[in-house]
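U., I forgot to send this yesterday:
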Amino acid sequence: MDLFSRSWAALRTAVADLPDEAFARPSGCTGWLVRDLVCHLVIDAQDVLITLATPAAAEPTRDAVTYWEVSTTPPTGDDPLDALTVRLAAAYEEPWLLRFHLDDVGSAAGRAAALADPAARVGTRDEVFTVDAYLTTYVLEWTLHHLDLIAHLPDAVDPPPEGLARSRELLESIVEAAFPASLSDRDALLIGTGRRAPTAAETAELGTLAGRLPLFLG
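Result:
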C-alpha cells in the first residue's frame, strides 16, 4: 500500500509539473493526447474511491495478477469509454481545470487508500479483491501511465524505481516468464506492453518470449 501511495504521488506530481503546452502533445497511449490521459487518471481515481467504499463479504475471486484482462490484440479506440474520455478531456478546455480536478479527486483517493485496511475485501467489476491486492494492481497501472505521460516529454521525471521494479514483477507473473536481466525495468514494461518495439538484439535476448509479446492489459 505504501508503494501505491508513492507511485500515485509521483504520477500526480508529474502532471502538476507539466507546462500547459504539454497537454496538447501525444501521450504514450495510442490515439490519446496528454490531456486525454490525465482525464483518464481522474476517472481511475474515482474508481479507486468507489471500490474502496464497496465492501464485500465473499472470498476474493482475483488478485493483483489475475485482475487483468489480457489480450494480444491492441485496442482500436472504438471502446465507448475511451471515446467518452477524449470528449470529456476536450470539455475541460483549460489545463488548469484538469490539474485541479486530478489533484482534488486524486488526493482523496490517496487518503482513502492510506486509511483502508489491507486485509479488507472490496468489490469491483463483479469480482472480489483484498484491498492490498486491489491497490497493488494500481502500482502497475500508475507506473505504465506515468511512462505514457512522459513518452514524448524527455525532460520529465521517470516513475519511482521501486514502482518500476514491482510493475516488472507483476508483468512477469502475468506473462508467466521472466524478462532478460539485460532489459531495464522500464524497457521490460515498454516492450512487454507494446509501448515500444524491441530492437533486433532485444528480440534475440527475449527468445521464445518475443513471440508471446506484446500483451495488452485491460
